[in-house]
Design brief:
Elements lengths: L4 H22 L6 E5 L2 E4 H17 L4 E4 L12 E9 L1 H5 L6 E8 L2 E9 L4 E6 L3 E4 L2 E2 L12 E4 L9 H12 L4 E3 L4 H9 L5 E4 L4 H13 L3 E3 L7 H4 L2 E4 L1 H12 L4
Parallel strand pairs: 3-4, 10-11, 10-12
Antiparallel strand pairs: 1-2, 4-5, 5-6, 6-7, 7-8, 8-9, 12-14, 13-14
Helix pairs in contact: 1-2, 4-8, 5-6
This protein binds adenosine-2'-monophosphate (2AM) and calcium ion (3 copies).
One calcium ion (CA) binds next to strand 4.
Length: 264
């Protein structure tokens, strides 16, 4: 597996942020935590990790734009390229001592995702992809799962957060999907959920109310692993709508249909 110089920069930034997160995870009870909104926590760990990543990425490519969850967007002078970064995806898990969280770094060129890295510092699993080069977990090539029918599938999702999203609508969708699949999982890290779809661990995934930094890296991981990822209606307006549905070609289509089914 040959990584481009740019993907290497992203990987090194993710490792460095991962080390910072691991240190803070070991002393999570001492971290300063504040609320951005209802159920929307942010800690020093999130901010420190984002600073590390921004510094590393902009050192390598000073003209690129930078969109990170914890800071004001920097437009950059380049106009074509933008880093899209979630320094800690799964903050709620992190703050509760649950070892399931990740760093997510995506690179967009002219509105298209061209490279992505998702790194879980606890398991030391590194998910990487770049356009045309395939998707990898550590050094192993990833492919989405090949299951052909929803009945055999394990599907991930995210539950709308307090004060956000339509909880009633979600319950209807959950009931629809529950009736058609082998199992449902809810992990608390959308970035890892998408990496798991790319790795063929989850057969599919859907969630609403997401932000570009939750999904940017995951989009390219899934596409390079042969998967399909779209907005609710099968289109490409993922960042605009904050909604994703994904799986292999067939499962993604079946999942979209199941989500739309009216309740009897
Ligand atoms: P975060 O941990 O980076 O905030 C889990 O379903 C996803 O929702 C994660 O990507 C998580 O990202 C995000 N999330 C957690 N709390 C949220 C909130 N209050 N509002 C919006 N998104 C949230
Ligand atoms: Ca957050
Ligand atoms: Ca996130
Ligand atoms: Ca985050």
């Amino acid at each position: 597996m040959a990584r481009s110089a740019l993907l290497n920069v992203m990987v090194q930034a993710a490792f460095k942020a991962g080390r910072s997160l691991s240190r803070d995870f070991g002393e999570v009870q001492n971290l300063q935590v504040s609320l951005k909104g209802p159920s929307d926590y942010v800690s020093q760990a999130d901010k420190k990790a984002e600073d590390v990543i921004r510094r590393e990425l902009l050192k390598a490519r000073p003209t690129y734009g930078f969109l990170g969850e914890e800071s004001e967007e920097e437009k950059g002078t380049d106009g074509q390229h933008r880093w899209i970064v979630d320094p800690l995806d799964g903050t709620t898990n992190f703050l509760h001592g649950i070892p399931h969280f990740a760093v997510s770094i995506g690179l967009e060129r002219q509105g298209e995702m061209v490279a992505g890295v998702v790194y879980n510092p606890v398991t030391d699993e590194l998910f990487t992809a770049e356009r045309g080069g395939g998707s990898f977990v550590n050094d192993r090539r990833m492919r989405v799962a090949a299951r052909k029918t929803l009945t055999d599938c394990v599907i991930g999702t995210g539950v709308p957060h307090l004060g956000r999203g339509k909880h009633g609508q979600f319950l209807i969708e959950l009931r629809n999907v529950m009736g058609e699949v082998a199992g449902i999982r809810r992990s608390g890290s959308a970035a890892l959920d998408l990496a798991y779809v790319a790795a063929g661990r989850f057969d599919g995934f859907w969630e609403d109310g997401l932000s570009p930094w939750d999904i940017a890296a995951g989009i390219i991981l899934i596409r390079e692993a042969g998967g399909f990822i779209s907005d609710r209606s099968g289109g490409n307006r993922i960042f605009e709508t904050g909604a994703v549905v994904t799986g292999n070609e067939r499962i993604q289509r079946e999942l979209m249909q199941a989500l739309k089914r009216p309740v009897e």
